[in-house]
Amino acid sequence: METFCKSDVRNFFKQKFTFEPEKDWKLPSDNLIFKYPLWVFPTLQESKTRLNTTKSLLDDKGEEWRIHTFKSLHLCEAPGAFISALNCYLCNYHPRIHWEWKANTLNPYYEDLNIKTVISDDRLIFPTLEHWYFGKDNIGDIRNPNYPKNLQEHIGSKGAFHLVTADGSIDCTDDPSEQEKDSF
Prior knowledge:
Blueprint: H1 2-13, H2 30-33, H3 42-56, E1 69-75, H4 81-93, E2 98-103, H5 147-155, E3 163-166, H6 179-183
Parallel strand pairs: 1-2, 1-3
């Protein structure tokens, strides 16, 4: 998997294109190219300076400060494509980072849910069930007013997440053009 991803990405950078100019084409005069004054946003320049100053504070730190636990939370995630993509990225580009993740989706094993609203593809959910939280009611519906509080209690004092993703939809394979309407 690792070599497949890396080789695919490397191939994008190996692409070469050749364009032949028209016979009577000439390079434009520098008077035409540079005729307007330099475009500067003072506010943006101030932000850039502050950012670079902050980044410079890390110059005397070794590489060890970067190695830590990366924590992510994925809401409405089934079937789990974003988790899989993030896993691939972390394995390929940050293999020394320890990854802890939690995810939520409508519970595909909860029998009272409408089969039209649940994504039943559980190829990621089943082998990683300990990472999934479906709420105290075991439904997994984040629209339940108690769900945020229950999730916070479940997570407890484990600290903040570095990344939170949210798809926020339901299975719309029957009518993809009406996804937004059917989700609400």
